[in-house]
Write a structure and sequence with these properties.
22% strand, six-stranded mixed beta sheet, alpha+beta, 33% helix, seven-stranded mixed beta sheet
Length: 352
């Protein structure tokens, strides 16, 4: 059996051209690709498909159950293999929670450069994913592996939800308040990590955020006052808020001073430690975003910062805000906050 000197092993992040949800195809390019897709008659049981770029597909099984199906995978955002597995699994499971569903099992998606990484490293990635699935209360029931040039790991996740409690990203109403479950800034921290400029405290903060399961989604789906739900991931706060606005055909307003940030990310962003995905996101979104006169380049970078395993974004009636915040806080999401509102008006985003 081949042995490997740990000191001679490459950093996981050095084997990938991008990391985490920053690997996503740029929004503008993805839009052009999807325009080429041919239409297909959809069954009435398909409650949610690709029409509003929602977090997962939902297929009604009977009067009491609908199947939630999603998949997510990416290249390493960190160098520790177990942490990489944990982050990727948390991120994949989040899309079921974002539909208001309860996950039931997962399948692993694994692509690894088997001639570069030792078996122990690959096994640790998978063990990290398994540990998160255990926390979510679901098994990994199978999967698929390939020999890949870059390390790739993720999950297919299936869940269940009552058909009447599906929470789409397209049902926000005028007058709704917006609540964000997690602070933003993961992309900035990952950029600092890749350049060896992230402190141990910064790494611990990034890991705590990206491995916190979005379980509040299950309880939020029970609230009649919650009208729309999504999670903030690779397209940044601006991109995912705009998806909500387009689906609802409404205007969304964000009070920037109220948006929670991970500690230290503004200072890191001011030093230029941002991802390339942030710029690609802004290029795709800027035509539909109105900025205040005092908005800085750092603010724009943070607004478009790609989040890996980011927080839930909730659109709810004003009367439901306290209940929404209580659910988040009771699940340990201490920085959950009201960050804006939905109004009538031209589709788009206004930053205030």
């Amino acid at each position: 059996m081949t042995t490997h000197d740990p000191a001679a092993l490459p950093r996981l992040t050095s084997l990938a051209h991008g990391g985490g949800c920053g690997c996503k195809i740029a929004p503008g390019v993805l839009s052009q690709i999807l325009k080429q897709s041919s239409g297909f008659p959809l069954p009435k049981e398909l409650l949610v498909g690709i029409e509003t770029s929602d977090d997962a597909a939902v297929y009604q099984l009977n009067d009491e159950q609908a199947l939630v199906a999603t998949t997510d995978f990416f290249m390493p955002i960190v160098d520790d293999p177990r942490d990489f597995g944990r982050i990727a699994a948390t991120n994949a499971i989040s899309d079921v929670y974002a539909m208001g569903g309860t996950p039931i099992f997962a399948l692993a998606l694994v692509g690894m450069p088997v001639n570069v990484l030792p078996i122990e490293t690959i096994a640790a990635i998978l063990q990290g994913g398994e540990s998160v699935c255990a926390e979510a209360g679901i098994p990994i029931a199978g999967g698929h592996t390939i020999d890949s040039v870059e390390p790739i790991y993720g999950l297919v996740v299936l869940g269940l939800v009552h058909p009447s409690r599906v929470k789409r990203n397209a049902d926000a109403r005028a007058g709704d308040q917006l609540v964000l479950g997690k602070p933003i800034g993961v992309g900035v921290l990952s950029a600092a990590l890749k350049k060896n400029e992230l402190s141990p405290a910064g790494y611990a903060q990034m890991l705590a955020s990206t491995t916190q399961l979005n379980k509040p989604g299950i309880a939020l789906a029970q609230l009649a006052g919650v009208h729309a739900l999504t999670d903030v991931t690779g397209f940044g706060l601006a991109g995912h808020t705009l998806e909500l606005a387009r689906g609802a055909k409404r205007r969304v307003h964000i009070d920037w001073k109220n948006v929670p940030l991970l500690a230290g990310v503004r200072e890191l962003a001011e030093r230029g430690l941002v991802t390339g995905a942030s710029g690609r996101n802004w290029a795709a979104h800027r035509a539909q975003v109105t900025l205040p006169a005092n908005c800085s380049d750092t603010d724009i970078a943070l607004l478009n910062d790609p989040q890996t395993s980011g927080g839930l974004l909730v659109s709810c009636s004003p009367e439901a805000v306290d209940d929404v915040l209580d659910i988040f806080h009771n699940h340990g999401f201490a920085q959950a906050a009201v960050i804006g509102e939905v109004s009538e008006g031209p589709v788009g985003l206004t930053l205030r």
